Structures are given as C-alpha cells and as structure tokens.
Amino acid sequence: MKRDRSLRRIDDEKKLIKNQQIEIDLFNQEIQQMQDENKKLENIILQYQPNLNLLTQIVDQTDQFQSTDEMIEKFDMLYASYQVEMDFFFLTYFVVIKFLY
Predict the structure, then answer these.
(1) Which of 70, 87, 88, 90 is the most buried (most CB within 10 A)?
(2) What is the largest CA-CA distance in the chain?
C-alpha cells in the first residue's frame, strides 16, 4: 500500500514537472514572438529614420516661426530641397506615429 502511494506520488510529481515544462515552453514561444516583433519594429524605424529626421527638423523649425506665413514659406523651402524624401514624408509620419505609440 505504501509502495502504491509512493508510486502515485512520483507519477503526480512527474506530471507536475511535465506540465511546468509545457508552460515554460509556451512562455519561451511568447518571448520569441515578442522578440521577433521588436526586431520588425526596429527594422521599420531604421528604414524610416531619414524621414523621421526630416520630420524632426521640420517640427524643430516650426517652433521658431513668428507667423503662419513664415512657417508655410519655410515648409515650402524644405519641400523643394527634400522633394524626393517628402514623397515618403506623410507615409513615414503615420507609420512612425503608429509604431511609436
């Protein structure tokens, strides 16, 4: 009788250990998925970094303006000098805002 209880206890402990290992494996999978998602987000940020820099430059410079007309004039100048990059400006703005917040 004692032997049967001991064997059952051992079996129960084995099941417990097996269940805990399954939980650990699931947590590891979740961690891996989070790391993969973080890597994707980092790659997106790196891809759009030049456009983010342009956006930052525009925002920094708009703080210095005395009037709306001056701000529009400066924006037009920046647009002319960065015309190729500005094609991606609005897309970058929304992508960066979405992933940063």
Answers:
(1) 88
(2) 93
